[in-house]
# Entry
Amino acid sequence: MSSRARPLSHPPDHAAAITYRSDLAKVRQFVRDQAALTELPVNRIGDLVIAVSELAANTLRHTNGYGSLHIWSAPGEVICQVRDSGHISDPLVGSIRPDSEAANGHGLWVVRQLCDAVNIESDPGGTTIKLHMIL
# Structure
């Protein structure tokens, strides 16, 4: 299922990329370093680091495989794309603030609060989430 009418595009060839399975600190530093090369304001870099860290933590928590992360600049924005083998059955998950007692759903809600746009494409083969931060 997808929250978009058309499939998400693949990252461009110039996108910086990393795979991860265990080290969230490495993921956060990678995002911080790559975002610092863009025109994204410092406070927004922190927001992007938190958002990507939430997604990477979900990879570690909900899958047995690796995650991949791509980050690149496009006109007027910075884009991060996270892909893993997990499956999200509700492409609108995180659109409504979860109850404080809920066991799951807080991470994607936070991601949607921090980013200017969030696109989710998921099927039994895996999930791709694309985060957009306007410059």
Notes: The chain has one domain: 16-134. Confidence is low (pLDDT under 50) at residues 1-5.
